[in-house]
TrEMBL record, chain A:
GO biological process assignments: organic acid metabolic process; sulfur compound biosynthetic process
GO molecular function terms listed in the Swiss-Prot or TrEMBL record: oxidoreductase activity
Record keywords, A-Z: Oxidoreductase, Pyruvate
InterPro entries in the record: PFOR_II, Pyruvate:ferred/Flavod_OxRd, Pyrv_Fd/Flavodoxin_OxRdtase_N, THDP-binding, Transketo_C/PFOR_II
Boundaries of every Pyruvate flavodoxin/ferredoxin oxidoreductase pyrimidine binding domain copy: 14-234
Annotated organism of origin: Methanoculleus oceani
Protein's UniProt name: Pyruvate ferredoxin oxidoreductase
Subunit text: Heterotetramer of one alpha, one beta, one delta and one gamma chain.
Length: 370, 293
């Protein structure tokens, strides 16, 4: 069905289609609309699910852990301080191998209080063992949420998935949305290690040095397998519903001398900048990075790269720029831009490309370089 | 005692300290709950007592969870199991630290939401797992590794906090009275909604008394009126048998204090304050039971 919706409503619609057994959530701007919409669906009976209105994000994820371990499909949503408040449990979900799906509406962290978009919240959970996807449109928020369940629940993966969408620029803007009849795209939830009183086991007990590392390695092995599973699920999605996705969304990259790498809505904005640059005769392309964990293999050989980071690791640099540098050996031109919702237009992005200085880092609006 | 099943769900040779009363209690809790039960255990002595992977000392599934999260995790689990049409007992077995301090938010949330589960706090009045630091449940005057001069403030009144949530069933128990505990667990599990049992669980290394005195220590807590056994069903209080007698003519508080190293060198002022607290509690609960509020 074709309609128009905000990114938040799109996520809620996908969750409704996925029919989780439990939704446990705590509100925070700009995610609130997702949990309100889900509560509404549950109240009207459009979604037959248990809605647990918990008292904090730490409890939201703890409740998801209990529910998922109990054997039902589970969803939550959060943002920013909420995500950081649940951090301990974010690790726990992955360690317990529970395929919980969570929407994280990316937002900056205080102080000062700022409810606008930034990716530092998600990146602060980088090493938790969660898969992380960043979407660029309302439609993609819907599609990625549906696929997230299928990827997370695949027996080769059994890890939680975080669907990231930019606060306000995606969560609250309306775009066209085509919802689908998912049919048997998502099979009934089956967790091989669900709690079973007929087969009593200890879940997550003390684990000594001789075994602990095996569990860690298992997570990494699943992360590696997840690349193939993601590709399969995205392929099946394309076949069934006609929209295709990959680890990156490439735009006019084939013959590009310089490639812009960004995530989320800035990655989408970059496409307009590329058109401008092409009009000016600059052979530019853009690669919107969709998957952050597992981090994709990127073919950037022989190109210059401009990375826009909507995040920062203090005392070090942009997180994406660093990832590109260490994965590809290429010294990108690193631009820190869009923090806390700072406005970045496609003209600005075109300027980043025009004024690029490989190996350098620039803070947009602070340095006079751009 | 013959009513208590022979089946064991907590096997022998756990890594608990000699004389550990909380593991003794757990044994009775599980006997009362039976095999269709899941334990949710936050970080505490119990998360160690169950053994190291791949072994387990327990014959029911045990879900280990982070320190602050037990009640919330149980909330999710309870909802999931009922969504699947299962009637499995979901039981949190948490220490006092994980209940009165770090876990109180999730406890409160789960009770307010009316989660169908049983929350048991075994109260050894300190953080046993990390080596006997004070908790909010450590009584006035008790020495712990972080209150080496004796705790300057009173024990947090967990029961009144829980009571304020109006659960359909709550009770206190003590390891020295296992049959009383067994019956309370049975009754709690027969009631729908959030249930709570607070067990006083003497701990030889924490309280600094000889291991063989564990049962005696629990009895003295009850006989002196320091720990009062009762049930509150749908708000109605009933003092349990052993405390009924004790509250009429409590044994001298000294009997309880003197055998415990944690109360060594207690000042007369603190002792007096403790005595007054005991009297106030006895009076408060007696009045409530008699319907004089
Ligand atoms: C967030 C967090 N902080 C601290 C700890 C360390 N820790 C583990 S158990 C524990 C004390 C537990 O005390 P209590 O709940 O009274 O149970 P007991 O050990 O006495 O059985 C502490 C402080 C932890 N696991 N997690
Ligand atoms: S420290 Fe106390 S509660 Fe913990 S195992 Fe030892 S005796 Fe039991």
């Amino acid at each position: 069905m074709l309609t128009i919706a905000t990114g938040n409503k799109a996520v809620a619609a996908a969750v409704k289609a996925a029919k989780p057994g439990v939704v446990a959530a705590y509100p925070i701007t700009p995610q609130t609309e997702i949990v309100e919409q889900l509560a509404e669906y549950v109240t009207t009976g459009e979604l037959e699910s248990r809605y647990i209105p918990v008292e904090s994000e730490h409890s939201a994820m703890a409740a998801c852990i209990g529910a998922s371990a109990g054997g039902v499909r589970t969803f939550t949503a959060t943002s920013s301080h909420g995500l950081l408040y649940m951090h301990e449990m974010v690790h726990w979900t992955a360690g317990a191998r529970l395929p919980v799906v969570m929407a994280n509406v990316n937002r900056a962290l205080g102080p000062g209080w700022n409810t606008w978009a930034e990716h530092t919240d998600a990146f602060s959970q980088r090493d938790t063992g969660w898969l992380q996807v960043f979407v660029g449109t309302v439609q993609e928020a819907y599609d990625a949420t549906l696929m997230a369940f299928k990827i997370a629940e695949n027996e080769k993966v059994l890890l939680p998935v975080m669907v990231n969408l930019d606060g306000f620029t995606l969560s609250h803007i309306m775009q066209s949305l085509e919802t689908v009849e998912i049919g048997d795209f998502l099979p009934p939830f089956h967790l091989p290690h669900a709690i079973d009183t007929e087969n009593p086991c200890g879940y997550g007990p003390m684990t000594g040095p001789a075994d602990y590392f095996r569990f860690r390695w298992d997570i990494e092995r699943s992360m590696r397998d997840a690349r193939g599973v993601i590709a399969d699920v995205e392929r099946e999605f394309a076949e069934r519903f006609g929209r295709s996705y990959g680890p990156t969304e490439d735009y006019r990259c084939e013959d590009a001398d310089v490639v812009v790498i960004a995530m989320g809505s800035l990655g989408k904005e970059a496409e307009v900048a590329i058109d401008r640059l092409r009009d000016d005769g600059v052979k530019a392309g853009s690669m919107r990075l969709r998957w952050f964990r597992p981090f994709p293999d990127l073919d950037l050989a022989g190109r210059e790269v401009v990375v826009i980071d909507r995040d920062y690791s203090f005392g070090f640099g942009g997180v994406v720029a660093h990832s590109i540098r260490s994965k590809t050996g290429i010294e990108p031109y690193s631009v820190i831009a869009g923090l806390g919702g700072q406005e970045v237009t496609y003209n600005d992005i075109a300027d980043f490309v025009r004024n690029r200085c490989p190996g350098e880092e620039t803070w947009f609006g602070v340095s006079d370089h751009v | 005692m013959s009513a208590i099943p022979k089946e064991e769900y907590l096997y022998k040779c756990t890594s608990a300290c000699a004389g550990c009363s909380s593991s003794l209690c757990l044994r009775y809790v599980l006997k009362a709950a039976g095999p269709d039960s899941v334990l949710v255990v936050p970080a505490c002595c119990t998360s160690v007592i169950q053994g190291i992977y791949p072994g387990t000392a327990m014959n029911v599934p045990v879900y280990n969870i982070a320190f602050a999260a037990a009640a919330a995790c149980a909330s999710g689990l309870s909802n999931a199991l009922s969504a699947l049409g299962k009637e499995t007992n979901v039981i949190v077995y948490a220490g006092d630290g994980g209940t009165v301090d770090i876990g109180i938010q999730s406890l409160s949330g789960a009770f307010e939401r009316g989660t169908n589960f049983l929350y048991i706090c075994y109260d050894n009045e300190a953080y046993g797992n990390t080596g006997m630091q004070r908790s909010g449940s450590t009584p006035l005057g008790a020495r712990t590794t972080t209150t080496p001069g004796g705790k300057p403030t009173a024990k947090k009144d967990l029961d009144r906090i829980v009571e304020a949530h109006n659960p359909p069933y709550m009770a206190t128990a003590c390891s020295a009275y296992p049959l009383d505990l067994y019956k309370k667990v049975k009754k709690a599990l027969s009631i729908e909604g959030p249930k709570f049992i607070h067990i006083l669980a003497p701990c030889p290394p924490g309280w600094r008394y000889p291991t063989e005195k564990t049962v005696e220590m629990g009895k003295l807590a009850v006989k002196t009126g320091t720990w009062i056994l009762y049930e509150r069903e749908f708000g109605k209080l009933a003092i349990s048998g052993p405390s009924k007698a004790a509250m009429k003519k409590p044994a001298p508080l000294e009997d309880y204090i003197k055998g415990q190293g944690r109360f060594k060198n207690l000042s007369p002022e603190i002792f007096d304050e403790m005595r007054q607290q005991v009297e106030r509690n006895i009076q408060r609960l007696s009045r409530e039971e008699a319907g004089v509020c």
